[in-house]
Each structure stands twice: as structure tokens, then as C-alpha cells.
Amino acid sequence: MNMSFALTTREILARQKTVTRRNGWRRLAVGAILQPVVKCQGIPKGGHVEKIGGPIRVVAVRREPLNAITPADVHREGFPGRSSKWFVAFYLEANGGAPDQIVTRIEFEYL
Fold first, then answer.
1. Region 100-107: what's the mean pLDDT?
2. Cα(69)–Cα(37) distance, rounded to whole angstroms?
3. Mean predicted confidence (pLDDT) in 86-96
């Protein structure tokens, strides 16, 4: 299964990112193997999915409010030195919603 990292391609390539937050993804299970890609949807006819490195394995999944993100998790999201407030604004600009919305926190390791 593919997972898009369009906004954090650089962080995935550098293997800096080990956590991601998503709307949905409620059925994702620990142990699932995912292929990071630049983009999964909206690819024009004849286009292809661009892989980012090798696969990743899900090591933890939980649901939590977006604004519960800690500074440590902002770092794990691939943004060292950024604040939790900054990350929430970044996420909402890309995905919409509200600061207290429940999102899926997915922790993974590189294979």
C-alpha cells in the first residue's frame, strides 16, 4: 500500500521523519508495510507513482487530538526546531479541519 508524503518528501528521503499524522487511516494496523510515494491521487492518465526510497513498517498507531502534538513529535515529524503551534498551523493549511480534531498518529521505521 502506498502512502503519500508530498509535503515531506525531503524529510522522508533524509530518513528524518518517523511519525506522521493523517485524517482517516483508522484501520491501519501495526506491522503494515507501506511504500512512501510523492503523490498517490490526482496523477494524470499515463502518469506514474513516484516512490520515495524503500518501504516503511508501522510500529504504532493511535488516535489523538491534532493539538496534542508534543515538541518531540514535531521533531519526529521531520521539523526539528519548529513549535507545536507551528505544526498545527502547517497541518491545518494542508488538510483543513480544526486544531482539536482527532487525527491518526502513525509511527514507523525504515526497512
1. 98
2. 24
3. 96
